[in-house]
Amino acid sequence: MKRFILVSTREHDLAAADEVRGVLAAGGLREDQMQVISLARGPLGPIDELDLDNCAGVILGGSPFNASDDPGKKSNLQKRCETDLDALLDVLVAEDFPFLGACYGVGTLGVHQGGIIDRQFGEPVGTSRIRVLDAGRKDPLLAGLPDEFDAFVGHKEAVSVLPAGAVLLADSAACPVQMFRIKSNLYATQFHPELDPAGLAQRIMVYRDAGYFPPHEAQELHDRALASQVDWPELILRNFVDRYGKTDRQAPPEI
């Protein structure tokens, strides 16, 4: 199996390490099957040095950053991360290279492809009922999932207008774009397929002062996360790994 690349923009060590754990566990990957690139620790560097010929796919984790943040208030780190990701997506989209972005990936891929990302459809930290649409039922990354399933969310922004040519795969009552595809092999989910209850509980405490909820609610949200039953979303990551790690790239069925 070729290796996968996980690109992380998280500065907080605990959150970054747990994201790696979650992606490995959900994807059924060993540590030696995934390379982790931390943009918080340094620039991405030349894209050709990533050796994409020996890479099965690129995964972009979540982030404390938002694509719709006021440009004048973005930190230098956020600006550098966005520049690096934009350059990476230039190559990945041109080659229709396997990509799966979780949460932050919706905004990153959405902006890159000309969609509109704003604060209309944010969701509070917790679970959201995801609905698989007709196109999603035909897509290999959603194979084996039920028509509706619960997933962990917590986001200030979302896609309000899909990029031209994007295929909408899933939505929810509160958020009209929960998953979409660009071309045949580039995907983004608004929800977190890598998160389990323990991971969300930890993330709540790490980001308790980041504006996702009033800090005094952190313990209640933490306890609620631990009691959650969320099992299906990880299958999306497993399908991504199985599809691109073990087989040649193929176009999904015609919609």
Offer a concise description of the structure.
The protein is an alpha/beta fold and 255 residues long. It is built from 7 helices and 11 strands.
Describe the main β-sheet briefly.
Answer: 9 strands, mixed
Record the strand order, biggest sheet.
2-1-3-4-11-10-9-6-7
Q: What is the CATH H-level superfamily?
A: Class I glutamine amidotransferase (GATase) domain
Shape verdict = globular
Flag low-confidence runs.
Answer: none
What order do the helices and strands follow? EHEEHEHEEHEEEEEHHH
Overall pLDDT level: 94
Total strand count, please?
Answer: 11
Task: Return the CATH architecture.
Answer: 3-Layer(aba) Sandwich
Counted up, domains total 1
> CATH fold name, please?
Rossmann fold
Main CATH class: Alpha Beta
GO molecular function: GMP synthase (glutamine-hydrolyzing) activity
Protein name: GMP synthase (Glutamine-hydrolyzing)
Domain Glutamine amidotransferase: 51-197
Organism: Paeniglutamicibacter kerguelensis
